[in-house]
Write a structure and sequence with these properties.
Number of strands: 6
Shape: elongated
Mean pLDDT: 88
Strand order of the largest sheet: 3-4-6-5
Structural class: alpha+beta
Number of helices: 4
Radius of gyration: 22 Å
Helix content: 55-70%
CATH topology of the largest domain: Topoisomerase I, Chain A, domain 4
C-alpha cells in the first residue's frame, strides 16, 4: 500500500509542476514592453506544405530591447513568415526589408499595462486552480484507499504532505506573478 501512496504523491507533484511550467510558459508570451523571442512562440509557418514553428525555419534574436529580428534560413520564406505573423494577431507589425524581418515593440501605455497585470493574475489563478485540482485528486485517491484498508495515520500524513506541497507551489506561483507584474509595470 505504501508504494501506491508514494505513487499518488509523485503523480500529484508532477501535476503541480506541470501547472507551474505552464504558467511560466504563458507569462513568457505576455509582452512586457521588452522584445523577447518568446513573443513569437506558437506561430507556425507553411514550410513546403508542412506547418512548422517559426523558430525551426528562421533565426530569431533581439538586437536591442525594442526589436525582434527574424532571419529565415531561406529568403523565399520572408513573405510566408510575414503573413504568418500578421495572421497570428499578436498586435505586432512585421517590417520586411528583403533580407530580414524586423518587429518593433511599441512602448506600453498605462492602460495596457493594467490590462496585462489583470491577465497575469488570471493566468496565476488558473495555475492555482490546477494545483488545487491536483490536491483534490490526490485526496480523493487517498480516501478511496482508506476505504480499501489503508491505515488512517498513513492517510493523514499523506494528506498533510500533499497540503504542504500545495502551499509550496502556491507560494511559487505568487512569487512568479509578483515578478511578472513588476516587470509589466516597470516603464
Amino acid at each position: 500500500m505504501n508504494e501506491e501512496v508514494e505513487l499518488i504523491i509523485e503523480e500529484t507533484k508532477d501535476r503541480m509542476q506541470k501547472a507551474l511550467e505552464h504558467l511560466e510558459h504563458e507569462l513568457a508570451r505576455l509582452r512586457a514592453g521588452r522584445a523577447t523571442p518568446a513573443l513569437l512562440d506558437g506561430i507556425t509557418v507553411d514550410y513546403y506544405g508542412v506547418n512548422s514553428p517559426l523558430s525551426q525555419v528562421s533565426n530569431i534574436n533581439t538586437p536591442d530591447p525594442k526589436t525582434i529580428l527574424i532571419q529565415p534560413w531561406e529568403r523565399t520564406m520572408l513573405g510566408t513568415i510575414e503573413k504568418a505573423i500578421l495572421a497570428a494577431n499578436i498586435g505586432l507589425t512585421p517590417i520586411n526589408n528583403g533580407e530580414v524581418i524586423r518587429i518593433n515593440i511599441p512602448p506600453l501605455t498605462e492602460e495596457r499595462r493594467h490590462q496585462l497585470v489583470k491577465q497575469v493574475r488570471n493566468e496565476g489563478e488558473t495555475a492555482k486552480i490546477s494545483i488545487r485540482n491536483a490536491r483534490k485528486w490526490a485526496n480523493d485517491e487517498l480516501k478511496r484507499m482508506l476505504k480499501e484498508g489503508l491505515p488512517e495515520d498513513i492517510e493523514k500524513n499523506s494528506t498533510e504532505s500533499i497540503q504542504h506541497m500545495t502551499n509550496d507551489y502556491t507560494a511559487k506561483i505568487d512569487k512568479i506573478m509578483a515578478l511578472k507584474e513588476k516587470d509589466v509595470m516597470t516603464v
